[in-house]
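Here is one chain, start to finish.
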Amino acid sequence: MENFATFFPDGMVSTAGSRYQGKLHGRAFSFFENGEKWLEQQYEFGVLDGEQLEYRDGKLFSVENFQNGQRDGWARYFNIECGNLFLEGGYKNDKREGYWYEYYGPEISTIYSYEADSVISVVFTNPDFTNSADSAPLPTYRDECCCANR
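Its structure:
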């Protein structure tokens, strides 16, 4: 096992981690040019396998699980302004599968049912919130911090 690092032209670290027989193996880190962490990933013999953490503006944005290079398992997405969970659900073979929960502050606003990355139905819409989405949401920056203490 050997440690490695790559660098931006200005000398800041771009990626760092370890390799085994020339392939990424173990924990790997990617950084933005300003030095802030972007990704923290787990590799097994060159293939993404395990938990991936993504950061934006220095704050946790997503936690996704990978198996054999594909998203597989539970994923959570957070509002970077306040840290609130705003979306979570499962992946199978890199496609959204099963129930996905959208939150507004601490409350569930909508529950979607997915099959092979397609919305099958809207299972629940909280009457306290207006759901303007025509299809299920992908992770975005959203202003739900106002309701964190509802």
